[in-house]
Recover the amino acids of this structure.
């Protein structure tokens, strides 16, 4: 597995998102044993960059990851996130210094570790100046509880101000063949030496061509995501079809093409596809060896924009633009 550079932090350039093992997706929490086998297989294949968050569950996803990495801590670059659960009696988002200090203790305990490698603010808190949040997080770095700091779904001004307070290693944001906002941010990230961690790199499964609306559970969050409304889903089918065309030509799978396109954008990019199944983990990890031709990359660059937003209105209100 090749590596990517996120600020001063080196990671496997393909990571593993653990959220769907416990939260948000159809089948979450239904087979923890397979989820743990998936994490073990990831480590065996060199997919050592693991992603979780306090709010996934909440809490149970960190506990699951903690169980999976017990005895293998040294092999893992461990990332988690704070700020979408409040421990101060306030409402989330809560990135007050008191909440940052409280959150880290819970995450360390649930993960069963004495430090977190990459600690992200999960969403920008409009009520707390970013300097105060990053100032508090920087104290955790000084105390050895955290190695590197990250932001998620922050935009230009916040990124600059945060980075001026303490070096930011990575921005985690949605970025994929059908969510291209980050094209606009990449020049700034590169100017500052900040890496990009694309979440939902498979378009929440859509780009693999394997999602069927009728299979989604009532509480699957994609049911409230505009792109997955019946009408938009139908309109977007052409995108999945185009990815399939490139996959056939490249003798790979649509998931691998979606990941290989992201990897081709730079060696400061480390996508974290999510799966709770060993077989898909193996398929996704093999994208490390897929090199798309210039023609295939152009074909993918030219895909039409997706129909419908990538998050619900409520979620979008938490995202800086
Ligand atoms: N910072 C943030 O705000 C934020 C937001 C969302 C997610 N994240 C992080 O990013 C990670 C990845 O994002 P995501 O899970 O939302 O989306 P994703 O990686 O784009 O897609 C995950 C979905 O694709 C399916 N899948 C995975 N590999 C597949 C394959 N090879 N073939 C067919 N289907 C496949 C998974 O199903 P199975 O699990 O059943 O295989 C799951 O339904 C999360 O786990 C989480 O850690 C962060």
């Amino acid at each position: 597995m090749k590596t990517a550079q996120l600020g001063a932090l080196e990671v496997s350039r393909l990571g593993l998102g653990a959220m769907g093992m416990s939260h948000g997706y159809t089948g979450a929490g239904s087979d923890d044993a397979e989820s743990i086998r998936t994490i073990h297989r990831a480590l065996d294949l060199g997919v050592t960059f693991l992603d979780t968050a306090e709010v996934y569950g909440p809490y149970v996803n960190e506990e699951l990851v903690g169980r999976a990495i017990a005895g293998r801590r040294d092999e893992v670059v461990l990332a988690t996130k704070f700020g979408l659960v409040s421990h101060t009696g306030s409402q989330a988002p809560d990135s007050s210094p008191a909440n940052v200090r409280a959150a880290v203790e819970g995450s360390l305990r649930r993960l069963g570790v004495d430090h977190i490698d990459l600690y992200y603010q999960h969403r920008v808190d409009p009520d707390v100046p970013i300097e105060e949040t990053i100032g508090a997080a920087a104290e955790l770095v000084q105390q050895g509880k955290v190695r590197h700091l990250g932001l998620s779904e922050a935009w230009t001004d916040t990124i600059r101000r945060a980075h001026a307070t303490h070096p930011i290693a990575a921005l985690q944001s949605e970025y994929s063949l059908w969510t291209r906002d980050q094209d606009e941010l990449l020049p700034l990230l590169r100017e500052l030496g900040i890496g990009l961690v694309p979440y939902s790199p498979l378009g929440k499964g859509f780009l693999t061509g394997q999602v069927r609306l009728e299979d989604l559970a009532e509480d699957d969050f994609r049911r409230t995501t505009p792109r997955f409304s019946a009408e938009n889903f139908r309109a977007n089918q052409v995108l999945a079809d185009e990815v399939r065309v490139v996959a056939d030509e490249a003798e790979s799978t649509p998931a691998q093409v979606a990941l290989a396109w992201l990897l081709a954008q730079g060696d400061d990019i480390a996508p974290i596809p999510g799966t709770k199944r060993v077989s898909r983990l193996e398929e996704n990890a093999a994208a490390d060896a897929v090199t798309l031709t210039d023609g295939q990359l152009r074909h993918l660059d030219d895909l039409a924009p997706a129909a419908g937003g990538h998050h619900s209105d409520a979620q979008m209100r938490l995202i800086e633009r």
Summary: Residues 3-203+263-289 form a domain with the TIM Barrel fold (CATH 3.20.20.100). The radius of gyration is 18 Å.
